[in-house]
Amino acid sequence: xxxxxxxxxxxxxxxxxxxxxxxxxxxxxxxxxxxxxxxxxxxxxxxxxxxxxxxxxxxxxxxxxxxxxxxxxxxxxxxxxxxxxxxxxxxxxxxxxxxxxxxxx
Amino acid sequence: xxxxxxxxxxxxxxxxxxxxxxxxxxxxxxxxxxxxxxxxxxxxxxxxxxxxxxxxxxxxxxxxxxxxxxxxxxxxxxxxxxxxxxxxxxxxxxxxxxxxxxxxxxxxxxxxxxxxxxxxxxxxxxxxxxxxxxxxxxxxxxxxxxxxxxxxxxxxxxxxxxxxxxxxxxxxxxxxxxxxxxxxxxxxxxxxxxxxxxxxxxxxxxxxxxxxxxxxxxxxxxxxxxxxxxxxxxxxxxxxxxxxxxxxxxxxxxxxxxxxxxxxxxxxxxxxxxxxxxxxxxxxxxxxxxxxxxxxxxxxxxxxxxxxxxxxxxxxxxxxxxxxxxxxxxxxxxxxxxxxxxxxxxxxxxxxxxxxxxxxxxxxxxxxxxxxxxxxxxxxxxxxxxxxxxxxxxxxxxxxxxxxxxxxxxxxxxxxxxxxxxxxxxxxxxxxxxxxxxxxxxxxxxxxxxxxxxxxxxxxxxxxxxxxxxxxxxxxxxxxxxxxxxxxxxxxxxxxxxxxxxxxxxxx
Amino acid sequence: xxxxxxxxxxxxxxxxxxxxxxxxxxxxxxxxxxxxxxxxxxxxxxxxxxxxxxxxxxxxxxxxxxxxxxxxxxxxxxxxxxxxxxxxxxxxxxxxxxxxxxxxxxxxxxxxxxxxxxxxxxxxxxxxxxxxxxxxxxxxxxxxxxxxxxxxxxxxxxxxxxxxxxxxxxxxxxxxxxxxxxxxxxxxxxxxxxxxxxxxxxxxxxxxxxxxxxxxxxxxxxxxxxxxxxxxxxxxxxxxxxxxxxxxxxxxxxxxxxxxxxxxxxxxxxxxxxxxxxxxxxxxxxxxxxxxxxxxxxxxxxxxxxxxxxxxxxxxxxxxxxxxxxxxxxxxxxxxxxxxxxxxxxxxxxxxxxxxxxxxxxxxxxxxxxxxxxxxxxxxxxxxxxxxxxxxxxxxxxxxxxxxxxxxxxxxxxxxxxxxxxxxxxxxxxxxxxxxxxxxxxxxxxxxxxxxxxxxxxxxxxxxxxxxxxxxxxxxxxxxxxxxxxxxxxxxxxxxxxxxxxxxxxxxxxxxxxxxxxxxxxxxxxxxxxxxxxxxxxxxxxxxxxxxxxxxxxxxxxxxxxxxxxxxxxxxxx
Lengths: 105, 508, 574
Prior knowledge:
The complex is a heterotrimer of chains A (about 100), B (about 500) and C (about 575). Chain A contains three helices and one strand; from the N terminus they run H-H-E-H. Chain A has about 100 residues and is an all-alpha fold. Chain A folds into two domains: about 1-60, no CATH class; about 65-105, no CATH class. Chain A is flat and about 60 Å long. In chain A, about 15% of the residues are buried. Chain B is mostly helical. Chain B has helices at about 10-15, 15-30, 35-60, 85-115, 120-140, 145-160, 170-200, 205-215, 220-235, 245-250, 255-280, 285-310, 315-335, 340-370, 380-385, 385-400, 405-420, 425-450, 465-485, 490-505; strands at about 70, 80-85. Chain B has a two-stranded antiparallel sheet. The two termini of chain B are about 30 Å apart. By secondary structure, chain C is mostly helical. Chain C folds into three domains: about 1-240, no CATH class; about 245-490, no CATH class; about 495-570, no CATH class. Chain C is built from 22 helices and three strands. In chain C, strand 1 and strand 2 (about 65-70) form a beta hairpin. Chain C starts with a helix and ends with a helix. Chains in contact: A-C, B-C. At the A-C interface, helix 1, helix 2, strand 1 and helix 3 of A face helix 7, helix 12, helix 15, helix 17 and helix 20 of C.
C-alpha cells in the first residue's frame, strides 16, 4: 500500500478528498474499527441471548464466529490450491499456440 | 391402367414406360450433337418430360389406388416384363426427376467451367442414360430387368465421374474403384437373382413373392436374399461397403456429385426396400433377423464412424461425402427398425437428404466456380464475399445437423419416434451422438465461412455466382426450410410409400 | 393507458426483443441500432404489462404437436420481467459501443431467453434454448482474438449440447407420456435424468460448470453483462418448473455453493472471480429449488430476480474498468477509486447487494432461501449456506472491489467511465437499493403470495455480524499478506479436462487411430494379396489396397458381410 507515484495528476475531482484512503494507516484504522465492532457485536449477543437478538431458542451465542473461522481457513487453503493446480498465466494460450517465446513454466 | 390425372389419357396410359424411354432415346441425339448447349436443352427437355410423367404417376397412386401395372409390349406379366408403380416408387420417381431438373439448371454454368468443350454433348448424353437407368430401376417389376437397369445407370456413371479428371486426376482412380466395386455389387445382385430364379422359376417380382411363400425354410432362397442384400447394400453405400463413395463424390464434376448425392444411393435403397418387403417379406424370420442383427449394427456404426471420419476431412466435398455415408446409416436404421414407422422415417430421410445434400453440394459448386476453393481453410471469409450462396450452404448445414424448422429435424424426429416405438433407446443415443458429431463437422465449415476473417492476401478475385446456379440453389435451400416448417406433404409422401411397401408384399 | 396497451394482450414480449434484434443486425447506422435496443425492451415491457391475465397465448397448432409460445403464469412472469429489465439497462449501458454484431445479438439473446421462459411445451423450449446459445455466441466471438474464438467455440459446443440433450430427453419423455408439455418432470425416469443434465449443463452443476468461468471472462465488456444475466437464470427457471422439490438438487446446490470459494480466492481475472461467485449464487437457487415449497420457490425466484441485477451491475463495473484500463486482472489493477470514483460507488453498491447487506436487494432475497431451508428442517443445508454466504459471496464481492478500486495503487490514472455507462450502472444500482429497502415491491411479484418480514432484528443482527466479521477476516488476510494472490496464475478447473487432457487425448487418439488403421490395412492387405496370389486374380490389378484404391478391402468387406447375412439367415427361425 505505497503512496501513489504522482499523487495529484489524473485524480478525479470527486476522489480528491478521499486520497488518504489508500494509506496504510487508513487501512489499519479500518481494521481496528471492524475488530471493535465485531467483538462488541459478539459480546452483546453473548450477554443478551433472550431479547430477540438470538434467532432460534435452541441456538444462542456467537455461532456466527464459526463461518468466520471457515472463511479464514478457506482463504488460507487457497495457497494449497495455488500450489497444487496453478500454472503460468498464459498456460492455455501457450497450449493453443498463441504464445511462442521461450519456456518458463 | 391409369386414369389420366392431368396428362392426356393416351400419354398417361404409357407413363411408366415413357418415363424411362424418353431419356434413353433422347440420349442418342444428344450424343450426336456438337453443341453442348443443345445437348443440355435436350437433356432438360427429357428431364422435364420425365418429371411430368412422374407427377402423373404420383397422382395416380395416391390414396388407396392400386399399383399401376404396365405390361411391356403387351406380353402379360409373369412371362413378359412388367413395369409396376405404387406409392413407394412414385415418390422416388418424383424425387429423381425433380433432382434431375434442378441439377441440370445448375449444370449449364458448372459444366462449362469444368468439362472440355468437345465432351459436353457426350456428357449430357451419358447423364440421360444414367437418368433412364435409375428411373428404370425404380419402375421395373422384373428382377433381372432391374439388374439390367442397374448396369445401364452404373456404366455411364463411371464415365461421368471420370470426367472430373480435368480438375483432379484422382477422379480416374476413383471412377475405376467405383467401377470395380459397383461391378462386384451388381454381380452379387445378379447371383442372388439367379438363386431366386433357380428356386422359383420366375423373374417377375410379384410372381416371385407368391412362389416364395411356398418355399419357406428353403436355404437357396436365404442365400439368394443374402446376395441381393449385400449387392444392393454396396450400391447404397451401406457402411462398410461405402469405400467407393467418398472418392467418387469428391472428384467427380460438381454437377455429377449434386445429382448422384441426391439420387444414386437412394435408388439402391429403394431396391432393398422393394426386395425385402415385397419379394421377400419381413414376416420371414431371416429377413427380420438380417435387419436387426446385420443392417442395424452396420447402420449405427456408419452413422457414428462415418461422421467421425467426416470430422477429420479437410476437403469439404470429402467431408460431405462421409456425411452422406452417415446419412445412409440413418435411412438404413429406419429400415433396420423394420416397422412401418421405421420404413416411413427411412423414406422421409431419403427425400430430405436429397434436398439437404443437393443444396450443400450445389453451394460447393457455386464456391468452386466463383472462388475456386474446396478446402475448409480456404473458406475463410467467404460469407462476406458470397453471402447468398453461403446462406444457402448454412441452411443446408443446419438441416444436416437437424436444427428445428429444417427438414433434417423432421426426419430425425420421425426416426427417433420410430426407434422409441420399437423400444430401441440405443438407436436414439446413436442418433444423438451422430447429430453432435454433425454439429462439430458443420461447425468447422461454418466458422470458417462466417466468423474467420478473410485472409489479406486472398489470391483469386471473386466472381459473381451465375443465376443459373443461384436459382436452383435457393429453391433447394427454401425447400429445406418450407418443408421443415410444414412437413405435412413429405411426411404424407413417405407414409404412403411405406404403406405401399408393406401392403404390396404377400402375407406369408 | 390500459386501452392503448390492450392491443398487445397475448403478444409474447419475446417477439419485440427478437424483432428489434433482427432489425438491429440489419441496420447499418448505430443511432438506429441504439434506438432499437432501447425500444425493443420498452415494447416487450408494454406487452408484459398488457397481458395481465395468466394463461396460454400464442398457440401454434402444427398437427402432431401443439406449440404454446406464450404461457404466462406466476412463475414465468418473474423471470421474463427481470430479463426485459436487464436488457433495457444493458441497452443504456452499451449506448457508447458501436458494434453491430453485439447490439443485435444481445437483443435476440434476451428475446430468446424470454421466449424460453414463456415456452409451454418442450419443443418451443428447445427452440429458444438453442437460440439463446446461438445468439449469445457472437458476444464472445466479436472480441476477435484467437483465444476468444476458441472460447466461443467451446461455449457454443456446450450450449448446443445442452439443447440436444434437452431435445433427446423431451423426446424420450414424450414417447412415455405422449405429451410434449413442459411441467413437473421429476427424476423417476431416464428421460428425467437426461433433462436434468440438460438443464444442469446450463445451470452450472458441479463438473458441468466449467464453461461459465471459461467463457464469461473472454466476452466483450458489454457482452459479459448480458451473458451473466440470461443463460444460467433461464436454467434455474427450467429447474424450478421441472424439478421443484427434488432432494438431490439440495446436495448439488450445496456443492455449487461451497466449492467456488477456492477459485474465488485464487483466480486473478476479476471477471472469472465473478463467474465463480455466480456459480455460488446459482447454488443457492438450486438448493431452493431442491427444497421446494412456496417459500423456497419464492426464494429461488427472488434470488434470480435480484441476482440478475446485481451480477449485471458487477459485470458492468468491470466492463467499465476493462474499457478504460484494458484489463481486469487483479495483479494489474488497484487504486482506481482515485480516477473512477463514481464507478467505485456503484461497485460498492453492487458488492453490498452481493454480500447481502441489510437494506440491499441481496439480503431480502437470500434470507428467503435461508428461512425456507430452516423451516423445512434441512439443517445441514442451512448451516452450509450460511458458511457459503460468508465465504464465497462476501469474499468475491470484497475481492473485486478491493483489488480493482483500492488495494495497491498501480498509478493507473484513467478517465472516468462514459456517462451512458454510469447511467446504466445507476439504474441497476437504484434497483439494488430500491428492492432492498422497498422489499414488498419484490415480494409482490413472486410466484406465491406470502407474508414474510425480512427485517427481523435477529436476522439483521446476525447478517451484520457475518458481514463485518468476513470483512475483518479479509482485511486481516490482506494486512498480513496472507491472501493467496501474488502473481498472474491460471488456476486449473474442470475445463482442463477438455482443453488440455481432452485435446491431447484427441490428438493422441487420432495418431494412434491412424497407426491402427494403417496396421489393419497392412495386415488385411497382406492377407488379401496372399489370397489373391494363391487363388485367382479376381479383383483389381496391382495396388488394389493403397489408400486411394480400396477395392480389394471392399471386396473383403463384401464377403464378410455376405457371410454375416448368410449366418444370420441360417440361424433364423423359419
